[in-house]
Write a structure and sequence with these properties.
The structure holds 2 protein chains of 2 kinds.
Chain A: E1 2-5, E2 8-10, E3 15-16, E4 29-32, H1 33-43, E5 50-54, E6 70-77, H2 84-95, E7 101-106, H3 113-119, E8 123-126, H4 132-138, H5 156-161
Parallel strand pairs in A: 3-4, 4-5, 5-6, 6-7, 7-8
Antiparallel strand pairs in A: 1-2, 1-8
Chain B: H1 6-27, H2 33-40, E1 45-47, E2 52-56, E3 62-64, H3 65-78, E4 82-85, E5 91-93, H4 101-110, E6 127-128, H5 142-153, E7 168-171, E8 185-191, E9 197-203, E10 216-222, H6 226-240, H7 251-258, H8 260-274, H9 283-292, H10 304-314, H11 316-325, E11 326-328, E12 334-339, E13 350-352, H12 353-366, E14 370-373, E15 379-385, H13 389-398, E16 413-414, H14 429-438, H15 442-448, E17 453-456, E18 470-477, E19 480-487, E20 499-500, E21 505-506, H16 507-524, H17 531-538, H18 541-548
Parallel strand pairs in B: 6-7, 7-8, 16-17, 17-18
Antiparallel strand pairs in B: 1-2, 2-5, 3-14, 4-5, 4-13, 8-9, 9-10, 11-12, 12-15, 14-15, 18-19, 19-20, 19-21
The chains are: A alpha/beta, B alpha+beta.
Bound molecules: protoporphyrin IX containing FE and iron/sulfur cluster.
Chain lengths: 162, 551
């Protein structure tokens, strides 16, 4: 797996800790919600940034009081047709003001890339054989937006009025 | 009519090029069918039993003559000389070749049309009353809001992978010609006691195997909040709608299982967070779009109604057609003409390329360059001066487009059924044809009056049988075709699901059963009431007795 950020490949410092495995001693652990629920006391004071992975039925709303503990929130697209994480990303950015990294994992395809960017995702877990030029194109092949998103792109109502 | 500005034009052209690239990646093998499927479905391209099917959006069912000519041209050049107008005010082509589709889309873009979001689990083409702008009691033209919703929903980054498809309809008169209560969201334009315009919001209607009549979740939503309220509904649905079972994924199931009260509470809570924000409709943007739909300049013609009345007196065929296919316009001296696409013995909703050209010509000459598609699969010329009606009728007559049956028993909605559809249990088109033949006598049809028969070949309900005054549903009984009949359904302002009358009928029995039902109605009716009103007054009893005897 490779990690995409601003249309470029970037190093991924995070280590995924599956299930409720013990993350202590791991640098940049990316833990599950179950693990957080179980170990939150202990994890509250570890000396490394924390990341969390949410399955598509796990809303980040469950974490609202703890959001500032996480540097990364990874949202899952378990299959192409499961679009719940689009709403989660927007809520994180717009309602809860989450400033950290929102990462798209799972079925992350170039043809959804622009939608994801517009919902506030900023890193993307992609296959190692990623066609970087194709992804960069996908981010620009539509330039008109009819609705506000969670990125800073302008949209038609506003463009027409200015 | 709405005209594209630079933003709309840029978007549609960019989408054509994007899809051209995707088709190229598919043809080169870079994209597997599975992945390509998700992309082509965003552009209205289905893969059916034998060929691709392309569904082109006709937003809120309004077309210019130029656009209709383009649809005819596409039928002629890329398809088999015809197109099929659907119950959702779209047009479908049944035989396009994959390599041609980007070119078809490019041709459509030339006349400001596209196939975006005509399939897939996203917000589909927004539909509206086909008499928008010309009905006498209209509060405001629903197409203004349908266009606003169309724009907001186009390539919505958050709502392009919903649990299931999502259909929104808007209506602006007391009569509901948009079937609001069987939509995921129905918006009824209302004026409140303070004279302000807004919407009654209905959510969670639908047909298919579990039909629901949509409950109202808000009596009055001020118009400037339309988009934020829709965004709240969609956000609740996108997070909570079921994704584990295709048949339970529509919002109607979420509304029913959460309970209307709880669902409403969720929406209102979400809305409270975003209300008054960026999505608030600015007055100048509302004006901009409203102006596109301002009424045309009607030229009064002196003595218009006099020549019209004279022709009616002298020509019985014309006068009969006028009785069903011509209704009054809000402007005196003008009329609304409905062109039936249900001639006896044909597939409902089909029009040939030549017929489309004829209609385009008539609209250009006599109806301010505008055509509408109805959800009952007919076409409308909405602004015809009464002195021109006779000439229009003659031209329609020459093009086999003058069937005088709007609203009558032979103006049926019929799904493709076993003849074309791989999900079917039973044939539907031949059943419709048999019924049409049985009631061929126009005097009899007129005597029976308004009666909506709707036929589906299986429980998916493409033919809207649940809301037919008489609904016919094809079922399979040990490999044989049977038909279950329901009575008393309606998709209009008095929306209701039909009641099952009793044991199903075989293919050979169903036409006779319909005749028995109609005869029973004629015996029972009082003071010229409609079939539906008689049924609602007397209930199933007399019909059951006539069909099955008293035993
Ligand atoms: C020929 C092949 C066709 C197939 C395989 C097909 C398949 C389906 C399926 C599976 C559904 C159920 C979807 C759901 O419940 O979410 C459905 C619903 C529907 N279809 Fe079709 N269909 C076909 C043709 C048509 C045609 C030609 C029309 C229009 C004239 C049409 C109009 C509709 C409508 C209005 C619904 C109801 C949607 C609702 O629940 O509100 N279908 N169709
Ligand atoms: S109702 Fe059934 S038979 Fe008819 S078109 Fe739809 S899926 Fe096919």
């Amino acid at each position: 797996m490779a990690l995409l950020k601003a249309h470029e490949l970037t190093a991924d410092p995070w280590t995924v800790i599956d299930g409720t495995g013990d993350p202590s001693g791991v640098d940049h652990p990316l833990i599950t919600l179950e693990s957080w629920v179980l170990h939150s006391d202990k994890l509250g004071c570890v000396n490394t940034p924390l990341g969390i992975f949410l399955k598509s039925h796990q809303s980040p709303v469950e974490l609202v009081d703890d959001l500032d503990r996480f540097s990364v929130i990874a949202l899952d697209f378990p299959k192409l047709s499961d679009g719940r994480a689009f709403s989660y990303a927007r809520l994180l950015r717009q309602r809860y003001g989450f400033q950290g990294e929102v990462r798209a994992v799972g079925e992350v395809r170039r043809d959804q890339y622009l939608f994801m960017l517009r919902c506030g995702f900023n890193t993307f877990e992609v296959g190692d054989d990623v066609d970087l030029a194709g992804w960069a194109d996908a981010a620009t092949e539509v330039s008109v937006f009819y609705q506000p998103g969670s990125d800073d792109s302008s949209w038609a109502f506003r463009c027409r009025r200015s | 009519m709405y005209r594209y500005d630079e933003f709309d034009r840029a978007l549609v052209l960019e989408r054509v090029e994007q899809f051209r690239g995707q088709v190229a990646r598919r043809l080169s093998g870079e994209l597997e069918e599975e992945e390509f499927k998700a992309l082509r479905l965003r552009n209205g391209l289905y893969l059916q039993l034998h060929a691709y099917m392309l569904r082109v959006a006709i937003p809120y069912g309004t077309l210019s003559s130029q656009q209709m000519r383009k649809l005819a041209h596409i039928a002629r050049v890329y398809d088999r000389d015809y197109g099929h107008f659907t119950t959702r005010q779209n047009i479908q082509y049944n035989w396009p070749k994959l390599v041609d589709v980007p070119d078809i889309l490019a041709e459509l873009a030339e006349v400001e049309m596209h196939a975006i979001q005509t399939s897939g689990n996203c917000i589909r083409n927004v539909t509206a009353d086909h008499f928008a702008g010309v009905a006498a009691d209209e509060i405001e033209d629903p197409r203004v809001y349908a266009e606003i919703v169309r724009q907001w929903s186009t390539l919505h980054p958050e709502f392009s992978f919903l649990p299931r498809k999502f259909k929104i309809a808007v209506n602006g008169t007391a009569q509901d010609r948009a079937a609001l209560r069987v939509h995921d969201i129905g918006l009824q334009i209302r004026r409140n006691s303070a004279g302000k315009i807004g919407f009654e919001v209905m959510v969670g209607g639908g047909q298919g195997r579990t039909p629901y009549i949509a409950p109202t979740i808000r009596e009055f939503l001020p118009k400037q909040h339309l988009l934020s309220y829709l965004e709240a509904i969609l956000r609740v649905y996108n997070q909570l709608g079921r994704r584990d079972n295709l048949y339970k994924a529509r919002i109607k199931i979420l509304v029913a299982s959460t309970g209307v009260e709880n669902f409403t509470k969720l929406v209102e809570e979400e809305w409270a967070e975003i209300k008054g924000g960026e999505l608030t409709l600015p007055e100048d943007e509302h004006r901009r779009i409203l102006d596109y739909f301002s009424p045309p300049q009607y030229q009064d013609s002196n003595g218009a109604s006099k020549t019209f009345e004279t022709h009616k007196t002298w020509n019985l065929d014309f006068s009969r057609w006028c009785k069903t296919n011509v209704v009054s316009h809000k402007r005196p001296g003008f009329s609304i003409i409905t062109i039936s696409l249900k001639p006896i013995g044909s597939a409902p909703g089909d029009a040939s390329a030549d017929q489309m050209d004829v209609i385009a010509g008539l609209a250009e000459k006599f109806s301010h360059d505008e055509i509408r598609v109805t959800h009952e699969q007919n076409l409308v010329l909405a602004h015809v001066c009464q002195s021109d009606i006779y000439e229009v009728w003659e031209a329609l007559e020459n093009a086999a487009l003058s069937t005088p049956n709007i609203g009558l028993i032979s103006d049926m909605i019929t799904c493709p059924g076993l003849d074309y559809c791989n999900l079917a249990n039973a044939r539907s088109i031949p059943v419709a044809q048999n019924i049409a033949k049985k009631f061929e006598d126009l005097d009899r049809q007129h005597d029976i009056g308004e009666l909506k028969i709707k036929i589906s070949g299986c429980i998916n309900a493409c033919g809207h049988h649940h809301v037919g005054h008489i609904g016919i549903l094809g079922v399979d009984k040990r490999g044989e075709e049977f038909y279950q009949i329901t009575l008393g359904g309606s998709g209009a302002e008095d929306a209701a699901l039909g009641d099952i009358v009793g044991r199903a009928f075989g293919y050979d029995e169903v036409t006779g059963a319909i005749e028995t039902i109609v005869d029973t109605y004629v015996t029972e009716r009082r003071n010229g009431e409609r079939f539906l009103d008689t049924y609602r007054r007397v209930g199933l009893g007399p019909f059951k007795e006539a069909l099955y005897g008293t035993a």
